[in-house]
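Worked example (supplementary).
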Amino acid sequence: MKIIKSLIVVTILMSCVLSQTMAQELKLGSVQPLTGGGSLFGLTAKQGFTMAMEDLNQKGGVDGKKLDIIIYDSTTKPPVAATLAQRLLFEDKVPLIFGSASSVDTLAMMEVTERAQFPLFTPSASAPLITEKGYKWIWRVGQTDKICATLLGKAISRKSNWNRVAFLYENTDYGRTPCEVLAGILKEMKGKQVVGMEIYNKGDTDMTGQLMKLKNSNPDLLVTWGYYTEAALIARQAQQIGLRAKTQLFGNQSLSFPEYIKLAGAAAEGVMFIESTSSSINPNSKIQTFVKRYEEKFKRACYNTSVDCYDGVMIIADVLKKVGNDPKKIQNALNTMTFEGTAESIKFDSRGQNLKGALMAKVEGGNFKFLEYLQY
Amino acid sequence: METILQQFIFGITLGATYALVALGFSMQFRAMSLLNFAHGESFMLGAFIGLLCHVFLKLPLFLSWIITMGVCGIAGVIIEFLAIRPLYNAPPLNLFISTIGLSMILRQVANILTGAIAYKFPPTTSETPIKFGQISIIPEQIWVLGMAVLLMFGFEQYLKKTRMGKAMRAVAQAPDTASLMGISVLRMKSLVFALSTMLGGAAGILFAPLVFVTYDMGLWMGIKGFICAIVGGIGSIPGAILGGFILGLIEQVNSSYVSSSYKDVISFCILILVITVRPKGLLIRAGKEKV
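After joint prediction of all chains, the assembly is encoded as:
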């Protein structure tokens, strides 16, 4: 009996001590796809968080409290992500949740947080829909393909030799939406013409039919939108049928994966693409320092997700220092303040979207080469 | 005119690969009354073994071809022994489901082993197009087409001229009689399976330089090869070849002259039309059971 009693006393004492140290820790939460189809994004997000936490805690944390981010694994399944968001909200009682790097996860989590009127801060997830639902409790740092399409439209308007534009894109939301947005913009412009829109299915291996049809319409610019495997095939097959002589190939962000150059080989030379400013292609000195630190620490290539997640944590640390834990105050601060990101300043529009700039790059000598910035 | 000719070349190159896969389907059906849905995976298997030999182990291409076809043949025998043979006396539906399961197993294992990444296979000849007036021909296409025709021809001759080939045809025509004449039906079936897997594997290593090697490359190839076999008349060897070329050309013409959005829709509509008009396929006359 005595032993049990003393055990209970010890346990109570221990938990008091523990809760004391807990009070000096600031816990935030996130759900990320650490396993399953989105695991690459989940892990790079986690590493971005880790770097931000280390930097902050070295400088004394947030208001003297050590920052810690609980990261649950959504296994890339939206229903799991929604349940875990509830757990962070009601059991862990964190003051803010970071959204998942997988768009479908974040879309599921949004339903939970919006109902609870609770901030869901999403550093990186690419589906445009996330900040188009008109929800009041969602913010996103990262680039969307729709913004990229708009920026590309502005870039094309400045180029006097890109007048006849053709499209070849993957037959999914991912490929179609940005191409339709861009085609719409171009049709409004004087002197610019959309001369062809063709599609392919994910996994297709022969695009020569579409390419030959497009070749007959003599485009100056061929915009492709899809994953890098099909994009690499397009580059090769376009070269084979002689389309590349007069036409500039222009791709989306997926081309910035090193695998693209590996797969397309010599055919990749000269292909241009649009990319987020968070990319390691950006020559900005702050980005380059970050990429160097990241690669030394984790021994792997640094992707945009890590930079966006790092910036995300820094923004939230700023906000929590200024206004404390109250959701309403956090919402107000995020809507009004301007923040300093690694690549550029970050400001959210009325729908919570950061109107981020992009950059144009080119494959040259088997490497990615920065060309110019595209300001929003 | 130039474009049409160019389209034609792209179309028949694609068609030749379909035909090689279709041949396997047709053969298996003819000799074993088996619709093998895992046959597309032999295409993937061939491409990966070729990749392993030629790119990672840096073996010469000729040797890589021999190893690929050999390994595919052996894989065919093993697969037949483990997944098909125990089910010969079961209802046809069981056999059919067994091959679907097999296809999924092979694809998933490939996914795990290769990490779902696309691999580049270096061109056998050259990718730089040679210009003939307005038409540019890629030497690689000529190679693919030539090898495919050679394989098909060699295979036909094997069936017609050799003792083994004749025995296989005998088993296909009348298994009971063949058995009475002293032909081991089981061994012949196993051999047919090995041969068709070998052909599928050859199609894989042949086609790999034109595209990339991925774990799921066998899925569509299987479906399309199967369709070609049906259209040409399942069980008919020339039918499978004809079916392959027809589908390759239809797809090519569709995506450049009609609409890339409806490419597959139109292809499949034409195929449905063909089998409605000629239920047994193009090269098999109605009323005559698998020749």
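Two points are worth noting when inspecting this output. The CA atoms of residues 33 and 94 of chain A lie 19 Å apart. Chain A has a mean pLDDT of 91.
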